[in-house]
Fold:
Amino acid sequence: MNWLLLAGALSALSAIPAAAQKAAVPPPYAGVYQPQGVDEIGWWRQDDEDERTLAASPLVIRDEKLTGYIRNVLCATVGTGRCASARVYVIREPVFNASMSPNGTLRVFSGLLLRMRNEAELGAVLGHEFGHFERRHSLNLFRTQRSGTDLLAWSGLLASMAPSYNVIRVYRDLQWSVYGHLFRYGRDQEREADALGVGYLNQSSLPPQAAAAMWQNLMAELEASAKARGLRKPNFKTVAFTASHPPEGERAATLAGLALPDGSGRDNRAAQYRAALAPWLPLLLEDQIKLNDFGGSDYLIQNLAADGWTADLWFARAELYRTRGNQRDFANAIQFYGNAISLSGALPAAYRGLGLALTKTGRLIEGQAALQKYLQLSPDASDAKMISMMVPGAMRNE
Structure:
């Protein structure tokens, strides 16, 4: 009898709704959703408390101009009516990520901003997150997870009442089915958000092809990272049983197919994006280099330089090579520092790095001259006393 009940519970799993990929057409905007019922009201209250904590976090980049710019990109993507419900926070974390809570809190991580090449790519990610928000995916996933765990709890109770090999086997099958459904449900939500994100772009003034291009760039970065570490090339066609997102290759291909062909000629506003990010680019590159991901960082820097090398990009690449520390890296770093200095002579840190790299290769006189230049340009630097110890006469000249 209990075995039959467990079998019935297994078949009941199919009653849990699964998200399906929708056509890339945003639904009519129905205004800001208000929480209904105990679950939703409690969730919103928790999100409000989390947002208060986030607003006071030292990780938040407090730049009204940058935050306002990102908000404008969101509005250009999803529409001015929809974006009114979002509150943007830029978080200094060198990871490729963004998220939007049910209460309208939009978190954009600095690592994401570093990897975007234009407003269209940023809009693709923001539209994806807004799709989660508009479809209330977080809340739906919570309800699905609760239904699944409730099913397992009752099934476990029934199994304990009549322990036998067949009952235990059916219960274990049920466990795998529930867990598999929950992970698949999350992946289906990601697919729906992808379709909505490119749907917003289709109806905007930005080229929707940027969504697929962004994933192609990310896969290339992951390949470069794996190659530099001596690892196998990543498989972008399949994912693990427990994966929360679809494979990157699938996402790139799907987004390319959903993009309106007529939209490819639209302005992706790359120049405007570079200008908005320029004040923060050195800091974002510095954070990226500290991740100790040589291959991924080198690919990222070169990808950013596709529209032209700047002093900041040459300096970042020089720092990347110097900090890895192979003798051949020092030779490359010397060249890259020189390129940065030729584009911007008022870059004290470039002279510092150049001096250290020259010293490491045995070119002491040239290295000391570069370090002396660094001290002249930045006499109040935090490491001025330490660097002056490497330059004969520098301490006496203070």
User: Anything to note?
Assistant: The longest strand covers residues 87-91. The two ends are 91 Å apart (CA to CA). Residues 1-23, 178-183 have pLDDT under 50 and may be disordered. The chain is about 65% helix and 5% strand.
